[in-house]
Specification:
- With about 475 residues, this protein is an alpha+beta fold.
- It is built from 13 helices and 15 strands.
- The protein has four domains: about 90 residues, CD59, CATH 2.10.60.10; about 30 residues; about 120 residues, Phosphorylase Kinase, domain 1 (2-Layer Sandwich), CATH 3.30.200.20; about 220 residues, Transferase(Phosphotransferase) domain 1 (Transferase(Phosphotransferase), domain 1).
- The strands form five sheets. A five-stranded antiparallel sheet has the order 6-7-8-10-9. Strands 4-3-5 form a three-stranded antiparallel sheet, covered by helices on one side.
- Helix 8 packs antiparallel against helix 10, helix 8 packs antiparallel against helix 13 and helix 10 packs antiparallel against helix 12.
- The protein is elongated, with a radius of gyration of 34 Å.
- One of its GO terms (molecular function) is transmembrane receptor protein serine/threonine kinase activity.
- This is receptor protein serine/threonine kinase.
- Belongs to the protein kinase superfamily. TKL Ser/Thr protein kinase family. TGFB receptor subfamily.
Length: about 475
């Protein structure tokens, strides 16, 4: 009785192939090419003993080992070695390549390989866990309990829907098919904002408000970048604008690029400060929530539920929204840069646009910024944070006095300043926004003014980091809370 062999091919680009002699019912020619050459002697009592020659393209372990009755197989690796009688005798004599004898030769290396692979996987897993623990420990050093807390803004139905569909490991959004379904169920109600990017509408989805940012066709790269970041990075944080869906849809015979997010009635910080004044406590709350969001962006969190570090690159009061609880959340990641120390990459995207000129740091204006360094991009965010802080403080009531809202550098550049206008003021003249003397009479504003100045250093590396500012503001708030208790 003949023993049939099954051939399971597992090709490897690194394996060498040999020319082998071939004879038997499956041979089309007298030669074949394979990873090993073989000789099979069938010794069944019910048939005449005979020999077959050929080659295997599958695993040597699968084909040249295993116990089979009435069958002896010899394998070798050299051109036509299975047709050379003296060579086969030598192979058999020195290596014992019969079925029963080959098992130790093939199984032991395979077992060793599996053990080494297991140890390597365990080491990688342990290293990632340690990196994540170190990252979280570093955050805890700055009392960053809220940093890794995530929340869904808005009412319960939308929150429950997002909690049901949003995965914890791959992005902040819904599955793509669900995103497209949501987008097609939205009714646009009113336009609440316009800009060079396009329009923002208040929409309704199953009776709830959502914000729909409709990008203009010339700003397709920003839409693509923001969609990419939200769908690949875990960004659910109470001080980052909540993402719901993104879709390219056709309406009124034209293609529209939609980004759907949580809706906040108060609008942008820019709009909010136009119509609202704050006290020192409210000022501190706005400042603190922005820096919490910026810290979450800037810090890389390791592990499967982590995220790369992100620099915003276009931080300004128009790109920060004010929530109903008077905390802020950072929006508009169309120019963001991502960096992973763990994976060793810097992703600057393909968007040719640059940030808003009024908020550009000196090194961006004079084009000395190191574009290959992620730290450089974070330092430009800190410059802009200092300007936003200045805008908030201007609208803070101090001893019954408050100033009208003004954008940074309102007194030295035109309404729509050019690149050269800003370069002259910031780089050549090295001017900074004026800090009124009245702020020095109020403890919170005095402390925030100091932070501003340290965000505006001409030398980028001398500026405060987001983590350092967060620690300072936390201490300031703790001091204020203690003062209240004492009274």
């Amino acid at each position: 009785m003949r023993v049939e062999l099954s051939f399971n091919c597992h090709f490897s680009a690194e394996s060498r192939y040999w020319k082998c002699a071939c004879s038997g019912p499956y041979c089309l020619e007298k030669t074949c090419v394979g990873k090993v050459c073989f000789v099979t002697d069938y010794l069944s009592a019910s048939e005449h003993p005979h020999r077959e020659l050929g080659c295997f393209n599958g695993s040597i372990l699968e084909q040249c080992s295993g116990k089979m009755d009435h069958l002896i197989m010899k394998c070798c690796e050299m051109d036509f070695c299975n047709g050379n009688h003296s060579m086969l005798l030598n192979v058999t004599k020195n290596t014992g390549l019969s079925m029963n004898e080959l098992i130790p030769m093939t199984v032991i290396p395979s077992v060793l390989f599996i053990v080494v692979l297991f140890v390597f996987v365990a080491w990688v897993w342990k290293t990632k866990q340690q990196n994540r623990a170190r990252s979280l420990a570093r955050l805890n050093d700055f009392d960053d309990v809220d940093l890794i807390k995530t929340s869904i803004a808005g009412d319960s139905t939308l929150g429950e829907f997002l909690d049901e569909y949003c995965t914890t490991g791959s992005g902040s959004g819904l599955p793509f098919l669900v995103q497209r379904t949501v987008a097609r169920q939205i009714t646009l109600v009113e336009c609440v904002g316009k800009g060079r990017y396009g329009e923002v509408w208040r929409g309704m989805w199953q009776g709830e408000n959502v914000a729909v940012k409709i990008f203009s066709s010339r700003d397709e790269q920003s839409w693509f970048r923001e969609t990419e970041i939200y769908n690949t990075v875990l960004l659910r944080h109470e001080n980052i604008l909540g993402f719901i869906a993104s879709d390219m849809t056709s309406r009124n015979s034209s293609t529209q690029l939609w980004l759907i997010t949580h809706y906040h009635d108060n609008g942008s910080l820019y709009d909010y400060l136009q119509r609202t004044t704050v006290d020192s406590v409210g000022c501190l709350k706005l400042a603190m929530s922005i820096i919490y969001g910026l810290v979450h962006l800037h810090v890389e969190i390791f592990g499967t539920q982590g995220k790369p570090a992100i620099a915003h690159r276009d931080l300004k009061s128009r790109n920060i929204l004010v929530k109903a609880n008077k905390q802020c959340c950072i929006a508009d990641l169309g120019l963001a840069v991502m960096h992973s120390q763990n994976e060793d990459y810097l992703d600057i995207g393909t968007n040719p646009k640059v940030g808003t000129k009024r908020y550009m740091a000196p090194e961006v204006l004079d084009e000395t910024i190191r574009t290959d360094s992620f730290e450089s991009y974070k330092q430009t965010d800190m410059w802009a944070y200092g300007l936003v802080l200045w805008e908030i403080c201007r609208r803070t009531i101090v001893n019954g006095i408050v100033e009208d809202y003004r954008p940074p550098f309102f007194d030295v550049v035109p309404h729509d300043p050019s690149f050269e206008d800003m370069k002259k003021v910031v780089c050549t003249d090295q001017q900074r926004p004026i800090i009124p003397n009245t702020w020095c009479t109020e403890s919170i504003l005095s402390a925030l003014a100091k932070i501003m100045r340290e965000c505006w250093f001409q030398n980028p590396s001398a500026r405060l980091t987001a983590l350092r500012i967060k620690k300072t503001i936390n201490k300031l708030k703790s001091s204020q809370d203690q003062t209240k208790q004492d009274y």
